[in-house]
Amino acid sequence: MAFAREARRPLGVFVYSASRRFGCGNEYSTTVASKWESLSQYRSSVSSGYANPVRGFGNLLRSFSSEAPAVVDQMSLIKQLRQRTSAPIKDVKASLVECNWDIEAAQKDLRKRGKVLASKKSSRTAAEGMLAVAQNEGKVAVIELNCETDFVARNDIFQYLALAMAKRALLVENSSQQVSGVFPFGPDLFEELKLNLDHPKVNGETTVSNAATEVAAIMGENVKFRRGFVMSKSSAGVLSAYLHTSPQPGLGRIAGIVSLEVEGGNTQLEAVQRVGSELAMHVVAAKPLFLSKDLVSSEALANEREILKSQAESTAKSQMAVEKMVEGRLRKYFEDVALMEQKFIVNDSINIKTLVDNLSKEVGSPVKVADFLRVEVGEGIERLEASDEPVAQTA
């Protein structure tokens, strides 16, 4: 009995201190208050002389932790919804609370919130992103999907959407009715086309526009399709594509695509495909603007001639010397901007024209470069109003 009287006092002090500590608006105050009955039972058991004080105190502590499973369940729901949607934890918890911890209703609520936020961010500049390339027997399609930061461009969901768009772009109808060549298209043609997505966080049938909005809602950034190109080949041609800074097959930040045509239906295409791959890499590195010097636009040639003439006249030489200087520097200009005149990056002792001539001798049939395309993520976005630099280089 003496021991029981001594045991009651410190336990009473403990419970009193706990109620003082958590009784100022904290959710634990109601929990502590609700345990006084357990405390009374403990006291009566000790007074009766047959209860173990240590066992009674353990039962009391276990009763204080009886609310823990509910907290664990809430954390589990937050984790599940976060895995489903990739939304910020703060938004996940807010939706769950608002929907009374119904995970399905909270997921729908998050999608609604995300679309509203995505529409608000649609006016923000998106100059980062990825190029995605898809290819079949007769076509190569490349699309540009933009976002605001490189961090989002490396995200699995973003990259999955870009690849899905590229595969869909192979089915874009060429309104120009060209048998071969490059067909460019923009959001007006592409955004309302259907996509069938099969990703854990973005799935089902939807439009290109809605898919981009949904990914924007998940990522918290402006995500949008910017442009696309489809290059077709003739029946006796070879299409080659190269992607620079590629995180996985089919994705990159710079794309080079080259179309080679072989006369006479030559079946020895291995050498043609090898040179085509090297030329696609060359296009990425050398940045040609025109296929040949004959195809340099008259406007570009006139502007360059005027600049070179002004530079030559500043030397105070005769008019004849100035003309010779201008013509010599124009040859250098052609080597910079015309693909067929450029030095081959793999072997700079020859130019591309010589490379193609050597290939024709190797396969026994005339080979020519029919088209090329170079596209880079974000090119022209920040300088559309300040520069005449083309958005993409194509033959």
CATH class category label of the domain at 124-232: Alpha Beta
Distance between the termini: 102 Å
Instruction: Tell me how many strands there are.
Output: 11
CATH architecture identity of the domain at 124-232: 2-Layer Sandwich
Classified in CATH, the superfamily of the domain at 124-232 is Elongation factor Ts, dimerisation domain
Number of DSSP helices? 15
* Helical/strand content category: alpha+beta
**Mean pLDDT, all residues:** 79
SSE sequence, one letter per element? HHHHHHHEEHHEHEEHEEEEHHHHEE
- CATH fold-level label of the domain at 124-232: Tetrahydropterin Synthase, Chain A
Q: Give unreliable regions as ranges.
A: 1-8, 11-35, 45-51, 60-69, 383-391
Short description:
It is found in: Mitochondrion. The chain is of the alpha+beta class.
Sequence-ordered SSE layout with sheet pairings:
Blueprint: H1 2-22, H2 28-33, H3 36-47, H4 53-64, H5 68-85, H6 89-98, H7 103-121, E1 128-135, E2 139-147, H8 150-153, H9 156-169, E3 181-185, H10 187-190, E4 194-198, E5 203-207, H11 208-219, E6 224-232, E7 237-244, E8 251-252, E9 254-262, H12 270-286, H13 298-313, H14 319-337, H15 352-363, E10 367-376, E11 393-394
Antiparallel strand pairs: 1-2, 1-8, 2-6, 3-6, 4-5, 7-9, 9-10, 10-11
